[in-house]
Amino acid sequence: MTLPALFANLRLPVIAAPMFIVSNPELVIAQVRSGIVGSFPALNARPASQLDDWLHQISEETEGCTAPFAVNLIVHKSNNRLEEDLKMLEKHKVPLVITSLGAIPEVNAAVHSWGGLVMHDVIDDRFAKKAVEKGADGLIAVAAGAGGHAGTQSPFALMQEIRAWFDGPLALSGAIACGRSILSAQAMGADFAYVGSPWIATTEANATAAYKQAIVDSHAADIVYSSLFTGVRGNYLRSSIVAAGLDPDNLPEGDKAQMDFGSGGNTAAKAWKDIWGAGQGVGAIDRIEPVADLVAALDAQYQSAKTELRARAGIA
């Protein structure tokens, strides 16, 4: 299918994943100005009244850009701000809304009422079908290796099953941290690569210097998959778990009833403040740099990978 006009002029087929605490207006603005979709979780704006200021700033400072921005809404019942935040998104006519942890028809209908699009993140084909049935316009397939809350399925299996019946906008998430991986996501049938961890190690990101350096220093083997911190399974940096006085190889299961998104509710060490989320693609990240430089590097890698693939396939 033809993608919605919203995505017609992206520099790269990339949606920057919204990250708790890390994604702030400065990061989103830099992403959009660099030609990719920038995003942030509504819950990052604290108190809730700050969301109005953030949306005003982002809209004003990205006016005229060819790429849109998106806001992530947690639609799980634990989010007592959902209705209030949704009204603020309506006020600013946010063009793209990313929903997580539940699919609610009324939320999708509200976004459609102001002309916005909804993409819902899913970890398997069953949830994908439910999301579309409830009105989502597009899907984000969260495969194994993705940072933060992640699934367990291979991206090959997940993409194969979803694309067998869904021809709408589709992004792939899971250890995508270089231009070659962006092209690989497209080869598997995705319209976009959903990229998270590389943005943590940018100068604009709202992450501590220690967190940024830990991203640079880590590799795939340093990622731990656990439900302890929020009640939902996710990927975290081993070094942050150790620093919190916990044994990353012997973590108990978390209590989903204690979910408290934005801080975590299962341990004294809080996700995402103390326990740092990251995906298995961190091995590709070797420096802290501005967003513009990172996007330029991803673009160069992507173009090089396309040239290399054509040569391998014998395509002129």
Would you write up a description of this structure?
The protein is 35% helix and 15% strand. The protein is of the alpha/beta class and 316 residues long. It folds into two domains: 219 residues, Aldolase class I (TIM Barrel, Alpha-Beta Barrel), CATH 3.20.20.70; 72 residues, no CATH class. The strands form two sheets. An eight-stranded parallel β-sheet has the order 1-9-8-6-5-4-3-2. Strands 7-11-10 form a three-stranded antiparallel β-sheet. α2 links the parallel β2 and β3. α7 crosses α11. The longest helix is centred in the last third of the chain and has 23 residues. About 2% of the residues have low confidence.
Write down the CATH topology of the largest domain: TIM Barrel
Strand content: 5-15%
Whole-number total of structural domains: 2
**Helix count, per DSSP?**
11
Based on Cα principal axes, name the global outline.
globular
**Regarding CATH, which class of the largest domain?**
Alpha Beta
CATH architecture of the largest domain: Alpha-Beta Barrel
Largest sheet: 8 strands, parallel
Mean pLDDT: 94
The SSE string, one letter per element, is EHEHEHEHEHEEHEHEHHEEHH
Keywords:
316 residues; TIM Barrel; 2 domains; 8-stranded parallel beta sheet; 11 strands; globular
Please outline what is shown here.
With 316 residues, the protein is of the alpha/beta class. 35% of the residues lie in helices and 15% in strands.
